[in-house]
Amino acid sequence: MAFDKKLLDIVACPVCKGKLEFDKEDQQLICKFDKIAYPINDGIPVLLENRATPLVAID
Hints:
The chain is mostly beta strands. The protein has strands spanning about 20-25, 30, 35-40, 45, 55. Strands 1, 2, 3, 4 and 5 form a 5-stranded antiparallel β-sheet that branches.
């Protein structure tokens, strides 16, 4: 099942309430402000703070 990108208009980061960006390659939603990513399982975003993973900076 594919993620419906129209959801990006209504979902927000549960931590800061900011916009999320879709990362198609890794199937996750990214909050650039908090530098965390939320997984998407079977097309459904898992917007739980305890399931978010920190984004790793690449130098």
